[in-house]
């Protein structure tokens, strides 16, 4: 096959490209230039988006012996990922930009361009496994190394995208990948993993949002109030600096009467009100999702010992019952069999049947009732 290897400049994508070559594919490496002004994105060689990362990817391609190009996706990335990130926070929701990047950029814009150029598949360094099911559909499963599993942020992929994807690292551990990189002479073998949001240069999400949204957001200032009594406890400069479940930086002048910490329970962007209260008020037993994305045939109801959901990129699986809802089957209702805490609208709920990823949806509402 003709394979396009997306090379971020990190160790995972470099080894994935090398394995694609070793598997006999005709491989071309590309690096995505995602910033309209590279100096404005995170500095330092951390495995994504910077000039240093582009150079690291080029050197890795030279060692592997494959052609290498840089594709400018900066305008599309800014519109579909960065602007979406700002809009979601301004609306009081908590988005996942990496998941949105996979949906809109890496497995949509890049894949579409690759297919138009005659490539058969796109290979990435994500930790997930693909296999063909008994019904002939391509299934995505959790990676062998559950500590590195990235199926959560890939839960937005549909069947067409999965048929043209390769994840060469799904059956490996990170330790093995680093050792293999060193054996292959790849200089990125010991390069640190990237954990921060790539377009937030210093990792200060709240500060970045304050700078970008401070002047345009209608809720520039507001009150932090006790959810039980309605008492104003403090003031803030913008709801975009808060997320559901947040404990620190609440701008509260005095401790609660019971001495226990307070957490953000609700964000009202129209009035600028941030409501806080005890942790037990964060418990979520039911949630609704919109804009579902199914990896295969959409289910009607999922209910059984193997059904679970994941609500954060590095969160635990929770047993659940899942039902497709809405006249247009454009919604999802989830009953959690164990409570989750600090779950916010805007996050993704990814549905699993055992290790298989069924699909995902964007959380639109949460409820504490059983």
Automatic annotation (TrEMBL):
It comes from the Bacteria. The active site is at residues 101, 198. Pfam families: tRNA_Me_trans (PF03054), tRNA_Me_trans_C (PF20258), tRNA_Me_trans_M (PF20259). It is found in: Cytoplasm. Residues 287-363 form the tRNA-specific 2-thiouridylase MnmA-like C-terminal domain. Its EC number is 2.8.1.13. The record marks 126, 347 as: Interaction with tRNA. The keyword Iron does not apply. It catalyses: S-sulfanyl-L-cysteinyl-[protein] + uridine(34) in tRNA + AH2 + ATP = 2-thiouridine(34) in tRNA + L-cysteinyl-[protein] + A + AMP + diphosphate + H(+). Gene3D superfamilies: Adenine nucleotide alpha hydrolases-like domains, HUPs, Translation factors. ATP binds at residues 6-13, 32, 125. Belongs to the MnmA/TRMU family. Catalyzes the 2-thiolation of uridine at the wobble position (U34) of tRNA, leading to the formation of s(2)U34. This is tRNA-specific 2-thiouridylase MnmA. It comes from Nocardioides dokdonensis FR1436. The gene is mnmA.
């Amino acid at each position: 096959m003709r394979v396009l290897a997306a090379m971020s400049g990190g160790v995972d994508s470099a080894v994935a490209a090398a394995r694609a070559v070793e598997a006999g594919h005709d491989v071309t490496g590309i690096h995505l230039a995602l910033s309209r002004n590279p100096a404005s994105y995170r500095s330092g060689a951390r495995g994504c988006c910077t000039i240093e990362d582009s150079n690291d990817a080029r050197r890795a391609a030279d060692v592997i012996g494959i052609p290498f190009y840089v594709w400018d996706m900066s305008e599309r990335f800014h519109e579909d990922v960065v602007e979406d990130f700002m809009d979601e926070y301004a609306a009081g929701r908590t988005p996942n930009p990496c998941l949105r990047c996979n949906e809109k950029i890496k497995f949509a814009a890049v894949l579409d361009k690759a297919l138009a150029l005659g490539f058969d598949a796109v290979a990435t360094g994500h930790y997930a496994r693909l296999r063909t099911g008994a019904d002939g559909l391509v299934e995505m499963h959790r990676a062998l190394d559950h500590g590195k599993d990235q199926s959560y942020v890939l839960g937005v992929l549909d069947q067409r995208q999965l048929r043209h994807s390769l994840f060469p690292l799904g059956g490996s551990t990170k330790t093995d990948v680093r050792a293999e990189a060193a054996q292959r002479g790849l200089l990125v073998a010991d390069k640190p993993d990237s954990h921060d949001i790539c377009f937030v240069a210093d990792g200060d999400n709240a500060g970045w949002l304050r700078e970008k949204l401070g002047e345009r957001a209608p809720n520039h200032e507001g009150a932090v109030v006790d959810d039980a009594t309605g008492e104003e406890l403090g003031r803030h400069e913008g709801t975009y600096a808060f997320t559901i479940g947040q404990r620190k930086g609440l701008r509260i002048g005095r401790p609660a009467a019971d001495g226990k910490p307070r957490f953000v329970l609700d964000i009202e962007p129209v009035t600028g009100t941030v409501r806080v209260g005890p942790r037990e008020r964060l418990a979520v037993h039911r949630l609704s999702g919109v804009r579902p994305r199914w990896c295969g045939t959409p289910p009607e109801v999922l209910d059984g010992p193997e059904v679970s959901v994941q609500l954060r990129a590095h969160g635990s699986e929770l047993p659940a019952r899942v039902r497709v809802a809405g006249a247009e089957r454009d919604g999802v209702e989830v009953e959690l069999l164990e409570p989750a805490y600090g779950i916010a609208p805007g996050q993704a709920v990814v549905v699993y049947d055992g290790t298989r990823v069924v699909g995902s949806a964007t959380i639109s509402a949460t409820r504490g009732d059983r």
